What does this fold into?
Amino acid sequence: MKILIVDDFSTMRRIIKNLLRDLGFNNTTEADDGSSALPMLENGSFDFLVTDWNMPGMTGIELLKAVRKNEKIRLLPVLMVTAEQKREQIVEAAQAGVNGYIVKPFTASTLKEKIDKIFERIDAK
Amino acid sequence: MSSLENKEIDEEILVCARELVQALEEGHVDNANMLIDKMASIKGVSLFQELGKLTREFHEALNGFRADENLLGMAEEEIPDAKERLYYVINKTEEAANKTLNAVEDAMPLCDAIEEKACGLNTSWDRFTRRELSAQEFRKLSKEIAGFLTGTSEDVMKVRGKLNDVLMAQDFQDITGQIIRKVIALVENVEVNLVNLVRLGGDSRVHSNPENKAIQREQEGKLEGPQIPGKESEGAVKNQDEVDDLLSSLGF
It folds into this structure.
């Protein structure tokens, strides 16, 4: 399973990368905002996207919308991990087709639980 | 109105007045009437110019008042809010430092114990390879080795857990980074407003073009970023459970 981690803070990318490795996902790549992530997704055959919301350049919500519009990658599961916790933002992400939403600060078990849930739902389809 | 403009007007009137005296002396009444009208219109123009100047000053004073209002809002709300955000940064970093130190302090004795047991076993193992152990001593050693192997995998699991705590403790940097960025944006905003105020105060040497920065800030302002516990803004959820509830209400 190939996973792309997008966050403008390198510390957060490293935390998520280590947590994912702990969960058995060893094939991870990093990007620091949506505009660098999008071409990687288009060319890189990724299976899963973990993205922050607030980033300079292209934000996570814009990236999510761009992914859903792109015929090649529109079915990619997307997990948002963000400090944005306004209700209207969570609703906006849900309407844009996010597969999971985690607010920071989060725990390792929350990450595991949400990832498990996302793949359960995908497998059920 | 500048003194130069005034001088020009005064000279023009003076010229007209001389011509008027001459016209009256020579009995040219029509000419004299025309000159009187001309002098009146010169005064009229200067009156309009004066009015224009007053309007401009009034407009600038109003703008200055608006800048004052911005500063007032910052002093009353945003600066105290920024102070609270910075205190939250102190708490988060302190919490992270303590979590990390606790994990290290918990993991150290586990590593020490593993090392100590391994050293002891090593000595006995050397004696065994030199065939110095009695059968009874060997039975004791093999029991110790079995115990060490089980104990070590348990202890390594514990150390791993502690390393995970250290890892998770670093999540403060992302949160505090976002908060500090917001405070920097506020400080910049205060600076721009102060510069504007100084400029309005009459010193035309101060030049600044805050428009671009203002637009940038406006875009940044749309995202709330990390909430301060106990100070969540309206419409924000407090934790992951509330996120999950909201999403499940949307059919997730």
Summary: Chain A is about 50% helix and 20% strand. Chain A touches chain B through 31 residues (CB under 8 Å). Residues 2-124 of chain A form a domain with the Rossmann fold fold (CATH 3.40.50.2300).
